[in-house]
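Hi everyone, sorry if this is the wrong subforum. Our group has a chain we'd like a structural model of before ordering constructs, and none of us has done structure prediction before. Sequence below.
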Amino acid sequence: MLPIYYSDIFPIALPEGHPFPKDKYTLLRGRIGAHWADRVRMEVPLPASDEEILRAHSSDYLQRFVSGDLSPREIRRVGLPWSKPIVTRTRYAVSATIAACRAALAQGVAVNLGGGTHHAFPNRGQGFCWLNDTVIAARTMQAEKCAGKVLVVDCDVHQGDGRHDQ
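Answer:
Right subforum, don't worry. Here is the predicted structure as tokens:
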């Protein structure tokens, strides 16, 4: 069974006409469940801990993100409105990437349907990304002695602002 992790069950509210296609995660999970339910094991992991997040982000930024003590400019840079549900969903999306890494190392392959939030910097979010799940997961695998160097292949279809060396 292919392990697939997801976090779309934690809804986030976006303004009408917002360009972020948040429904794509639920639609994708539904398609997979409808066509390959007998070949996959879908689950929601536990939320990412502060310890895991702090492997890639400053404690000041994490505290401000969790509490909502962000400037309007910081929120605009991310492009998503801040809310407590966004914090919750972000923690679960990050932990889904960590869980997928662990499962892939154990079984050879695994999937996170809502990962790839690699645009966030250590001290700020950016480009629809509050936290950098890619770096958090890589550093967690390193901290757990499961990986040394980690190669990230960024297949985003956009111009510029790819993964930043952290």
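For your construct planning: The chain has a mean pLDDT of 92. Strands lie at 2-5, 40-43, 111-112.
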